[in-house]
Amino acid sequence: MLNVDVDADAAAVETRIRIGWNKFRQLVPLLTNKDTSLVVRGRLYSSCVRSSVLHASETWPVRKENEVALQQAEMRMVRRMCGIKLHGRVPSKGLRERLGLDEIISVLQQTGCDGMGMCASKRRQ
Questions:
Q1: For an engineered disulfide with 101, which of 77, 86, 96, 123 has Cβ 3.0 to 4.6 Å away?
Q2: Span 95-100, average pLDDT
């Protein structure tokens, strides 16, 4: 029974990552445009791509595998937006700072639920 829940949670995260990549591909002309500042690209990414990835993330249990998968997917997108190859050896933190983005895990934790089932969005109201 426990294995089924873990597989379902992993499948939900993989599905959200796939949706994020689809949204990213739709916005590639804007997100990789050299005439647009990196900060504007970061805001566009955050509002469109990241929000589609983190949609309904309050219901996910935060597991290490899920965190790693989200971080890897985001950093691939961030590197592509900045035009930096992996062999360029530019630190991830520096790229996120250029775009004005926080780590996806910190954003995920801000939107999550506490142990009582009270979600952050409900606590703010």
A1: 96
A2: 91
Which three-class secondary structure state does DSSP give residue 119? strand
Asked whether 60 and 5 are in contact (CB, 8 A), the reply is no
Determine the Cα–Cα distance for residues 73 and 24; give it in Å rounded to an integer: 11
Residue 57 CA to residue 9 CA, distance in Å, equals 10
Query: Residue 75 CB: number of other CB atoms within 10 A?
Result: 16
Q: 88: domain range? A: 2-124
Q: Work out how many domains the chain is built from and give that number.
A: 1
Contacts of residue 43, Cβ cutoff 8 Å, sequence gap at least 6: 100
Distance in angstroms (rounded) separating the CA atoms of residues 97 and 14: 26
How far is the C-alpha of 12 from the C-alpha of 122, rounded, in Å?
Answer: 22
The per-residue pLDDT for range 15-33, each reduced to its tens digit, is 999 999 999 999 999 999 9
User: What was the pLDDT predicted at 116?
Assistant: 42
Q: Lowest mean pLDDT of 45-59, 69-83, 89-103, 109-123, name the range.
A: 109-123
